[in-house]
Design goal:
mainly beta; Elongation Factor Tu (Ef-tu), domain 3; SH3 type barrels; 2 domains; six-stranded mixed sheet; 9% helix; elongated
């Protein structure tokens, strides 16, 4: 099990989780919320995590009713998560990654406003989180999600009904 919680071990604190079709982008192995929001299929409403053990950066979870390795093999490559309604509201200036996926990224570099692309996924790195931004030409940019150094403004669709989500950045468009 791969945890996408800010503190990875917090996955165990949620108790009952839901099981969904896999949202992992098989091309780059990054968490891909676009797949979740567009093609998510609920497989099982409630799964109780009986035990969880961390191994390196991943976890092994013992799920209720799954008692043998053979049974567990049938439950690999699924997404285990919470429905949006069960998530706490993030503090001011904090965002859930799934709210950022699909947002347009606009550079305000040297007084010019330039569309860089769309956030396709987020990456957790040791120093900071990065937005993976896909431009219209197929070029990927990895922009640190550091406020206000690089990220100067975040407008989520949920905050601006009728408008697309937008992340404004101070980023050289040639980089």
């Amino acid at each position: 099990m791969q945890s996408y919680c800010e503190n990875a071990e917090d996955i165990a604190s949620y108790g009952e989780l839901s099981l969904f079709a896999s949202p992992i982008d098989q091309h780059n192995k990054n968490f891909n919320q676009t797949t979740i929001t567009d093609k998510l299929s609920l497989i099982k409403e409630s799964i109780k995590v009986e035990n969880i053990k961390q191994l390196s950066k991943k976890f092994i979870a013992k799920l209720e009713g799954i008692d043998t390795p053979e049974q567990a093999a049938g439950w690999c490559n699924f997404f285990v998560g919470l429905s949006r309604e069960k998530l706490p509201t993030p503090d001011q200036g904090n965002y859930y990654w799934h709210d950022l996926i699909g947002a347009r990224v606009i550079s305000l570099y040297m007084g010019r406003e330039i569309m860089l692309g769309t956030i396709t996924s987020m990456q957790r790195c040791s120093a900071n989180d990065n937005m993976v931004v896909l431009g219209e030409t197929g070029k990927y940019r990895y922009i640190p999600f550091i406020c206000p150094t690089y990220v100067t403004e975040v407008q989520l669709e949920s905050q601006n009904i009728g408008l697309d989500s937008t992340v404004k950045v101070n980023w050289d468009p040639d980089f």
